[in-house]
Every structure is written in C-alpha cells, then in structure tokens.
C-alpha cells in the first residue's frame, strides 16, 4: 500500500449501523485509503457492553467502555450512539480536542445543531451528517454544496421508511393500520414502541435538518408542524384511491411569500403530515420502506433522490462517505466548512400555508344538508371543487358520507371552517381532513 499519512478514527456505538461501519472500515481499509489519500486507522470502538451480541464480529481488542481516550486522541470521531446524551457531550469534547465529527444522529442535530456547528466553527473543525436525513440517500451534500448557488423553493420528502411501508401496504392491499404495523414490527421495520415513527417525530427531525440546509436558516424542532398516521384507515385509503391519490407521510419544506410577517417578503414553512399525493407524481411510486426526497429549485428545476432510507449496511455507506470527506479535509488542511444560516428567514405556523384539501364528513341523509355544508365552507373562504356522496344504512337510519375536494385555501381559513362544520349541528362527525401536495 502507498505510504499514506495515518489518521486516527474512533467509533462511538456499535449497533446496527456502527457495527457495519467498523466492519467495512476494517475490510476495505486499503481501498478507502486510496480514495481519501490517508490511511484510516480504527483505533477504538466505544460500547456500553463489550459482550453484547452484534450483527458482525468485531475485534475484541478494539472494544472499550471508556470513550474518553478516543474523544481526545482521534482525528475523526464517528458518533452512532443516537439520542441526545451522552452523544452531545461526547461530540463537544471531541470537537474541543480538534476532531472532525461524522454523525447520523438526527435527533441531536435537530435539537442542538446550532450549538454543535458553532463549537466546530470555533476550532475550525467540520461536522458531517449525510446519514442523518435519509439513510443511504445522498441529499445533504447536494443541498449544502451542489445547490449552494441556486434557490431551493420547495422540498417534499418521504423520509421515514416505517410509515411508508405501512401506508404503502394499506394502499395496495386494503389492510388495516394495526395489522400492517404488527407486520412491520415482526419484520424489524418498526420498533416495539413505534411512536417516533408513526407519530411523525422522526420525520420532523429530518425536516428541520433539510429545511435548515435548503433555506440557510436555523430551523428549531419546535417550529416544525407535526402530525402522524395513526388516524389513517382503510376508508380514507379507499377515498384517496377513488380520487386519484395515494396517502404518504410527507416532510414539506417551502418558501412562502408573506410580507405581513417578513420585511423581505419571504418566510418558510416546515411541516410533517399525511398528505394526498397524485398517483402520477414521482413520490407516489415510492414503495415499501424506501425513502425519496423531491427538490424544486429555481434554476435546476425538479430533482429526485431515491433509495434506502434505513438499514445498517445501507446507512453505513453514507457514514463512510463522510469519513472519506473528513479525511480529505485533514490532508488538504485549512478550516472546516461551516453551516450557512445567514438568511435567517422566519418560520411561520402552519396556518399561513396555502394548499388544497380533502374533507370527509358524516352527515344525516336529508335535504338541505349539502347546501348547508357548502354554505359554511363558503363563509369560511373555502370553495368546493369536487364532492362524492356515499349512503351508509344502519338499520332504519341512513347516514351520508361526503368526501369534499376543495380549491386552494389558506390553512387557517380551512381549519376555522372545519371547526364551524363540527359545531353547526349539520355535521355528525368530521372524519378526516387531508392536505393535497404535489399537484
């Protein structure tokens, strides 16, 4: 092998992703050295339990329960522990010792990203996090580097494989949510406690990261509107199918024109919710546990990034790409590239968003109801575009289910109009309200 400069690489965490990263570093060390221009010496792996079972067998002499020597004695520290602490403290200590950081920790970046990037800037280090937003899909570098000279207008992403697997099977098979969730847990796609996935927390963290990059603005996690998929049922899937849509859990990040809020006239919206996507849209054909990110840029136009959003070896690919980038920076010298958040655009609440909607209502099957519903929506500045009525008989009582498609409306107007419908006495139950995205 060429006599390269040697860089010390430490790994924190040896779970599904970490163990694969370690195995690939050891297996392909010579090849990675040729790409990086430096030998990448894995000097230690910090774990909670040295004897815990792992997906791959790792050299026991590399395992340690004491991360301190690794944090202060390495050139590159790979953090794959997950969670906030001790990951945050460990990363700050490694940065303080002059190390570059590679992480896939979306929760940490979404909540403490500005603090970590500021710490790295202070010492001229870099933080790499390609694996934090969409697993193996390369999206961070395109947003940070390739599109740095463009203006990203909008991002729509399927960034959680568990929810996409569930919704895809519900759409294609007509299955119930609970049944598919149980299958996803049995297959390892969903955790025993699936809350982070099915309630949209995981996707919201990734949306905050993507929006911060795309719009050069620090987006706090609490500014991301979040809704999950637990209320999606077979009837809603059927109504979507009849209307030419598929339901996907989307992370949506977009620029909005709002002179009332921003002196520049520009704001951004960042939100996660189940939405109706036209079946001809590229995101509608993302099946199984795959992820995809659809980017609309002013000059580049429409761009689609698709692939595995999770998986140990798949995510390890993105991590190792960052390791090679960090090694190249060490060899080239100079300070690390910091994050650009100087645009500082206001993040507005979801009430400022404008889109189309599908509203499903249960009403009494009697004359005058349709006119009353249309009137209440019109009073709330919501215009009806389509309407489908289905009669459901329960003994001698007949109930009508109305599926209403609207023209474009402001979210706050729509929300107020739906509240009025629920309080009017005309509507027995507001079954669901879904946004339409991508048409």
Descriptive overview:
This protein is α/β, with parallel strands linked by helices. It is 37% helix and 28% strand. The chain has helices at 16-27, 29-36, 68-72, 87-96, 106-123, 131-134, 140-146, 161-173, 177-187, 195-198, 201-215, 234-242, 312-332, 369-379, 411-423; strands at residues 5-12, 38-46, 63-64, 76-79, 100-103, 127-128, 152-158, 225-226, 245-257, 266-278, 290-297, 301-308, 354-364, 384-394, 397-406, 409-410, 427-436. Strands 7, 8, 9, 10, 11, 12, 13, 14, 15, 16 and 17 form an 11-stranded mixed β-sheet that branches. Strands 3-2-1-4-5-6 form a 6-stranded parallel β-sheet, with helices on both faces. The radius of gyration is 24 Å and the shape is elongated. The model has no long low-confidence stretch (mean pLDDT 92). Residues 358-435 form the ACT domain. Its EC number is 1.1.1.3. This is Homoserine dehydrogenase. Pathway: Amino-acid biosynthesis; L-methionine biosynthesis via de novo pathway; L-homoserine from L-aspartate: step 3/3; Amino-acid biosynthesis; L-threonine biosynthesis; L-threonine from L-aspartate: step 3/5.
């Amino acid at each position: 092998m060429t006599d390269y400069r040697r860089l010390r690489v430490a790994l924190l965490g040896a779970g599904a992703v970490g163990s694969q990263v370690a195995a690939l570093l050891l297996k392909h060390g010579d090849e990675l050295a040729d790409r990086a221009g430096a030998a990448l010496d894995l000097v230690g792996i910090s774990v909670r339990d040295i004897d815990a079972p792992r997906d791959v067998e790792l050299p026991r002499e590399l395992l340690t329960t004491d991360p301190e020597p690794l944090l202060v004695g390495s050139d590159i520290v790979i953090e794959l522990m997950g969670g906030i602490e001790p990951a945050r403290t460990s990363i700050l200590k490694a940065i303080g010792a002059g190390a570059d950081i590679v992480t896939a920790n979306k929760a940490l970046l979404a909540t403490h990203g500005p603090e970590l990037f500021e710490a790295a800037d202070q010492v001229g280090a870099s933080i790499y996090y390609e694996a934090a937003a969409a697993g193996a899909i390369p999206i961070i570098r395109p947003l940070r580097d390739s599109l740095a000279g463009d203006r990203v207008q909008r991002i729509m992403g399927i960034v959680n494989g568990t929810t996409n697997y569930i919704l895809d099977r519900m759409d294609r098979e007509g299955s119930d949510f609970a049944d598919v969730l149980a299958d996803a847990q049995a297959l390892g796609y969903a955790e025993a406690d699936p809350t982070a996935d099915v309630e949209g927390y995981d996707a919201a963290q990734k949306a905050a990261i993507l929006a911060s990059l795309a719009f050069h603005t620090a987006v706090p996690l609490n500014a991301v509107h979040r809704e999950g998929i637990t209320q999606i049922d077979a009837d809603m899937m059927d109504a979507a199918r009849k209307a030419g849509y598929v339901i996907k859990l989307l992370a949506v990040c977009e620029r909005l024109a709002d002179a009332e809020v921003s002196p520049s006239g520009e704001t951004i919206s960042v939100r996660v919710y189940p939405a109706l996507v036209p079946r001809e849209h590229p995101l509608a054909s993302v099946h199984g546990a795959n992820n995809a990110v659809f980017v609309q840029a002013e000059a580049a136009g429409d761009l689609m990034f698709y692939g595995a959003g999770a998986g140990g070896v798949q995510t390890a690919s993105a991590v190792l790409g960052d390791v090679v980038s960090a090694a190249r920076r060490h060899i080239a010298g100079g300070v690390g590239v910091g994050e650009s958040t100087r645009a500082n655009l206001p993040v507005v609440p979801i009430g400022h968003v404008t889109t189309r909607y599908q509203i499903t209502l249960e009403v009494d099957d009697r004359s005058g109801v349709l006119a009353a519903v249309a009137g209440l929506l019109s009073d709330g500045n919501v215009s009806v575009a389509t309407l489908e009525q289905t009669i459901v008989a329960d003994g001698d009582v007949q109930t009508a289910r109305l599926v209403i498609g609207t023209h474009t409306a402001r979210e706050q107007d729509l929300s107020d109009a739906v509240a009025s419908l629920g309080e009017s006495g005309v509507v027995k139950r507001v079954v669901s309200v879904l946004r339409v995205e991508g048409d």
